[in-house]
Amino acid sequence: MHQSKSRVLAIAAAAAAIAAAAAATGALAQEQVTFATNWLPQAEHGGYYQAVADGTYEACGLEVEIKPGGPQVNNRALLIAGRVDFHMGGNLLQAFSAVAEDIPMVVVAAHFQKEPQVILTHPDGPFDTFEGMAGEAKMIIGDNGFQSFYQWMMDEFGFTEEQRAVYTFNAAPFLADKNSAQQGYLTSEPYSIETEGGFTPTIYLLADYGFDTYATTVETMQATIDGKPEVVQCFLDGSAIGWTNYLYGDASAGDALIQAANPEMTDERLAYSRDKMREYGIVDSGESETLGIGAMTDERFKSFYDKMVKAEVAPEGIDLSKVYTLEFVNKGVGLEEKKKLTGG
User: Fold this and answer.
1) How many CA atoms lie within 13 A of 39 on its CB side?
2) Which helix (H) or strand (E) holds 258?
3) What are phi and psi of 181, to 5 degrees?
4) Which CATH superfamily groups domain 117-209?
5) Residue 32 neighbours by CB distance under 10 Å
6) What whole-number distance in Å separates Cα of residue 320 and Cα of residue 104?
7) What is the structure's pLDDT at 17?
8) In a 3-state reduction of DSSP, which class is residue 269?
9) 85 pLDDT tier (thresholds 50, 70, 90)
């Protein structure tokens, strides 16, 4: 497939940057590693597939296998058992739980600065603010959501257990009731409602109202950090550049790999998800704009943990220093590639 000059230059620059990092850290030639995701291949995994397609991982000596997750797959268990090298976390709640259970699993990067969790309403319904739904709207929320972000919504904004209805991942109850609001994922449910319901729902991104967890994290075991720090660095640098190219460059090569692994992903669905990630700053906003994609800070971890303790979602007394490390991020990886691709 023909590649634009800017894309070729970006890939060449990425390869040079990764190769330089490999030389500095001494990464071994073509070491095989496995990255296990937490769901089926989709645009929300695009940066990793792009890094494979572009040869960005290969440039610093890694042969990366992406092992998809799914509804009946527990890839985190494979990480803990030492059968995969890296795992894609959801938000930070499971990382908190791992430390509480003395599991030496560490978050080494956050490729989503904002979790894509949303609440959806009818554009012609009675609610025109997020706060206005508290105590009033029929809130269609799944069990996992009720046990996590909805607890925070009750604590922070006054939503109630009584107004909650169970979400069964069927949009029909929401579509039939303008007084209802439904949980969703920014890149999924809004698309389904547009195509099935024939209207564009109003979107409230929880991250923009204070639910400030990182998401799509990279988790690994402490033993990997101690024994193979150069592999961790290469994987994270390659992922940051892969995400930069996927969001701002020609994503066709990454999309082709996603579709080969998950034929249900249409071109339209992939493009919609990528557009939403850019529009809402899911991958690249705030800290990542100056520190590079994957950025994390002590302040964000403490902020979210304190909120979850207050909402009685996370246990008190966790040693946050065991949850994550900043050793491998915040180095500006990908910023030069982004400038070249965006002209900024």
Assistant:
1) 10
2) helix 252-261
3) -135, 145
4) Periplasmic binding protein-like II (3.40.190.10)
5) 9
6) 12
7) 53
8) helix
9) very high
Fold of 5-114+213-342: D-Maltodextrin-Binding Protein; domain 2 (3.40.190)
Q: How far apart are the first and last CA of the chain?
A: 26
Q: Using one digit for the tens of pLDDT, what is the confidence trace for 276-302?
A: 999 999 999 999 999 999 999 999 999
With contact defined as beta carbons under 8 Å apart, do 241 and 58 qualify?
A: no
DSSP code of residue 279: H
Rounded-to-integer distance, Cα 299 and Cα 295, Å: 12
Task: Return residue ranges of the chain for CATH 3.40.190.10.
Answer: 5-114+213-342, 117-209
- Beta strands 86-89 and 215-221: pairing type? antiparallel
Mean pLDDT of the chain: 93
For residue 228, which of 76, 333, 82, 338 has the smallest C-alpha distance?
82
Mark out the alpha helices in 87-164 (DSSP H runs). 93-100, 143-147, 149-157
Beta-carbon neighbour count of residue 332 at 10 Å?
13
Structure tokens at 33: 């590693």
